[in-house]
Specification:
The protein is mainly β. The chain contains no helices and eleven strands. The strands form two sheets. Strands 2, 4, 5, 6, 9, 10 and 11 form a seven-stranded mixed beta sheet that branches. Strand 4 and strand 5 form a beta hairpin. The radius of gyration is 14 Å and the shape is globular.
Length: 119
């Protein structure tokens, strides 16, 4: 069974920074694209950032220049460095692993970690 351990959420002041971590087990981590997705109450999940392989990254326009996604395949961990945080970044952040193997789409989700940006 694929297991996720997410951490790093909490209360942060506007303008401050936070780093989220997500370690995944029971998964061929290196073959998966990893994403961070966030959700606020009553809304759908929104893509934040994604990374494929070691260096191909993609970001939502709302976080470009402020957030950085990275991964360490040796420890099966993906990170989200969040700088210059804004109140509108308040959300539950989910780690997501996706791959296509032999034509089959596989998609796994972490349990989420909540970030509140408030003074």
């Amino acid at each position: 069974e694929v297991q996720f351990v997410e951490s790093g959420g909490g209360l942060v002041q506007p303008g401050d920074f936070r780093r989220l971590s997500c370690t995944v087990s029971e998964l061929n981590f290196g073959s998966y694209g990893m994403n961070w997705v966030r959700q606020t109450p009553g809304n759908e999940r929104d893509f934040v950032a994604g990374i494929i392989g070691g260096s191909s990254t993609n970001y939502a326009d709302s976080v470009k220049g402020r957030f950085t996604i990275s991964r360490d395949d040796a420890t099966n961990t993906v990170y989200l460095q969040m700088d210059s945080l804004k109140p509108e970044d308040t959300a539950t952040y989910y780690c997501n692993a996706v791959t296509v193997t032999d034509g089959h789409y596989k998609n796994y989700w972490g349990q989420g970690t909540h970030v509140t940006v408030s003074s």
